[in-house]
Amino acid sequence: MLARKEAELTMESNPQSINQELLQYFPQRTLEAINGKRRNQEYKDMVEEFLEELRNPDIITTEENEENKEDQGDVFLNYLEFLTQP
């Protein structure tokens, strides 16, 4: 994914010509297409999320992980209920 690779490249070396760097990894895209995609706010937000994950790998930021926490809580509560049954 383009946004993830941009985040990785930014963390590794913060290249000055990121569009040219991304073109090396995504040769099926044109330079203009990469530049246009990078102007999109949704894309910029995704890059920021990936950068945050790379900076803080121990922090859970996705909704899926939040749902997993809830599922784990349910499993624990079910287990406690099971233990208290006659």
UniProtKB/TrEMBL annotation:
It comes from the Eukaryota. This is R2 protein. It comes from Lasius niger (Black garden ant).
